[in-house]
Specification:
By secondary structure, this protein is mainly alpha-helical. It has 15 helices and six strands. Helices cover about 65% and strands about 5% of the residues. The strands form three sheets. Strands 1-6 form a two-stranded antiparallel ribbon. A two-stranded antiparallel sheet has the order 2-5. It has a two-stranded antiparallel sheet with strand order 3-4. Helix 1 packs parallel to helix 13, helix 5 runs antiparallel to helix 6 and helix 12 crosses helix 13. The radius of gyration is 21 Å and the shape is globular.
Length: about 375
């Protein structure tokens, strides 16, 4: 399901087979079948399938974490480091502070939410590009993450939490089912709530949103806060599924966090989300990881492939937006640079007829 600021479902007018999600679904099925054949059916064994979906949970949630920020034309480079920091903090609370697992889990979620809100407030108060703000906070969080326990590994924490990470329900890992619940909640948030629609409106056209009485500043803070909260959820799933955590947790999540939503059809300029596309793209990236493990492919080649696919998705998305803008009666797509922030009090010159979207987003 692709949602924009101006339509509830983007595919209501176009045929479903022309939707990006349909293409991704076909690629996901074809890739899965091809990999199953290439591995001689090993991928279809119960243990392999369970491991596949167990380790798919975190990429899905971390992709959604990035997606909610992209919805307002922002980027969050700190999602991977924040996931690792929340994971280390929760393990420290269980092992060093002696707190029960439920308290540690809630603390990880609260920590992710707090850091996300701090990112949003920094963007709003300083008017600095969100890319730069989250780059700085990423570096700070990486230092804090290392300071929790140095290079050592936390293990042997709550048996109940680790048992949950190993548990399966109807053949599906419990952590994967939690990720699916998060997917449904995020989809409902953007499709059915006023707050979610306001986020899309702020990302699609900040000036028009402000004229409609929507606070763009509030949208930025909420988006970053939700991104941090989802990073906290990913941290909890990591702690439960892995059974041990160390200071390197989260280092490999930055590229997947961008790959899932961008390949899934989310616009870098904001105003559009695709929950279904993000999930399907995360599935495809996971297939590439499994292929690397099965055939011993150099991980650097995997990064190169994923990076090339992301770049291609960005180029195709840009071309699609240009073609869409040429249709009669179609709204003009956003053209501002991602990560820009528009203050609520700004009075841009876009009130003049013929002004560009860049002027709408420009701060005085």
């Amino acid at each position: 399901m692709t949602l924009t600021a101006s339509s509830r479902v983007l595919t209501t007018r176009d045929s479903i087979w022309r939707a990006p999600e349909f293409t991704l679904a076909v690629l996901a099925i074809a890739g899965f079948v091809a990999l199953a054949i290439a591995t001689g059916g090993n991928l279809l064994s119960a243990g392999t399938l369970e491991a596949f979906f167990r380790f798919l949970a975190v990429p899905i949630v971390i992709g959604l974490s990035q997606m909610v920020v992209l919805a307002v034309g922002q980027m969050n480079l700190s999602v991977g480091a924040l996931t690792g920091f929340c994971a280390m903090a929760s393990a420290w609370l269980m092992l060093e502070a002696g707190l029960p697992a439920p308290i540690a889990v809630l603390a990880a979620l609260a920590l992710g939410l707090a850091v996300g809100l701090a990112n949003g407030l920094l963007v709003v108060l300083t008017r600095i590009n969100g890319f730069i703000v989250t780059l700085a906070t990423m570096t700070i969080i990486q230092g804090l993450r290392y300071g929790v326990n140095g290079p050592d590994t936390y293990q042997g924490y709550s048996e109940g939490l680790r048992a949950f990470g190993r548990a399966s329900i109807l053949g599906l890992p419990a952590v994967f089912l939690v990720a699916l619940v998060v997917v449904v909640l995020v989809g409902l948030y953007f499709a059915r709530t006023v707050s979610g629609r306001k986020l899309l409106a702020s990302g699609g056209s900040p000036f028009a949103a402000r004229l409609s009485g929507i606070s763009n500043d509030r949208s930025l803070v909420i988006a970053h806060g939700l991104s941090g909260l989802l990073a906290g959820v990913a941290a909890v799933l990591t702690v439960a599924a892995s059974g041990s955590v160390n200071a390197t947790i989260g280092d490999d999540l930055l590229l997947p966090s961008f790959a899932a939503p961008i390949i899934g059809g989310v616009a870098l300029t904001g105003g559009m989300v695709s929950v279904t596309g993000t999930v399907l793209a995360a599935f495809l990236v996971r297939l590439v990881d499994v292929m690397q493990a099965q055939f011993g492919i150099n991980p650097r080649w995997v990064d190169l492939i994923i990076g090339a696919v992301v770049l291609g998705a960005v180029l195709l998305g840009t071309a699609r937006q240009k073609l869409f803008s040429l249709r009669p009666g179609s709204p003009q797509p956003a053209s501002a640079q991602p990560g820009s922030a528009q203050p609520d009090s700004a009075q841009p010159s876009s009130a003049q007829p013929g002004s560009s979207r860049d002027e709408e987003r420009r701060s005085p």
